[in-house]
Known about the structure:
This protein is of the alpha/beta class. Helices cover 39% and strands 24% of the residues. It has 2 domains: 9-159, no CATH class; 168-304, Trna Endonuclease, Chain: A, domain 1 (3-Layer(aba) Sandwich). It has helices at residues 21-27, 39-44, 47-58, 62-77, 134-137, 152-159, 165-185, 190-203, 242-254, 284-293, 297-304, and strands at 9-12, 29-32, 83-88, 91-95, 97-103, 109-113, 146-148, 207-213, 218-225, 230-240, 260-268, 279-282. The chain has a 5-stranded mixed β-sheet with strand order 8-9-10-11-12, sandwiched between helices. It has a 4-stranded mixed β-sheet with strand order 4-3-1-7, with helices on one face. Helix 3 packs across helix 4 (62-77). The protein is elongated and about 80 Å long.
Amino acid sequence: MPRLDATSSHYIKLGRRGEWEAEAIAEGVLRFGYHELPHELCIAGEWDDAKEAWRAHRGGNEGVLTSDLTQARTFYTAPETSVFITFHAGRLYWCRPRGPAELLEDGTKLRATVDGWHGQTVGGEDLFYERLSGRLLKVQGFRGTICQVEPQEYLLRKLGDEVMPEVQVALQAEDQIVNAISGLMGLLTWQDFELLVDLVFSSSGWKRTGSIGGVQNTVDIELLLPSTQERAFVQVKSHATPRQFDDYVRRMDQMVGVDRMFFVWHTGHVGDAPVHGRVTLIDPVRLARMVLDAGLTTWLRQKVS
């Protein structure tokens, strides 16, 4: 995937307390206030005259006036090769400006964008707050309307799905750990494998309410999620086949009061989950990552040592 480039990047606050955020993002436009700033002078590039007109309206010291006009100039003149970002409803949005600014009836200004606002990266990954560095999020504390984004290199890497070399090293190491965990799971007895699955679900908030023992490699675990009162059961298989999986899907469809089923296995293949979404498949790789996230790697290693 080609690198996402930009000649500059800017944060823009869409209205006081974000009053224009939802509308501007939906319409794919940039909005700017400064009602009393002469639009004609800004369009003409007469920035000295615009500054004096703004001084007559706003007053204030030279530093404040200079900052105000710098923000206005950025809004009016930033090229299509620049990137603007804003934040709304727990997500970062970005766009590229296009064309000249327009004057609206209320004195505010508007600019079109190249292809609207985007709440995902170039590759389609959601730009939720929890996936963003605090270095970038702190730009929301800017008291003005427009400012430069200081961690521009980080921003462009994030928007372009570009992985930093240090992150790539960490990902490779994580993959090696996941593969090692999967191998260790294969050394567990069926009782310990069931216990491992139980511990994984307990770490994510599920509460075990009971179990029904079966043959050595088949154990049902009954679960309750206290926060939502959702009920589920986990079918644990050391070795799984499509026929076995289909059998348990039919059983679940006949059960009353069960919201979903988790089908967990270590070896074998089972095919695809039903389209209704009530069945979650947890294959060896996914389970290994859950073990890693739950901090159970040491427990697993000690069990098989």
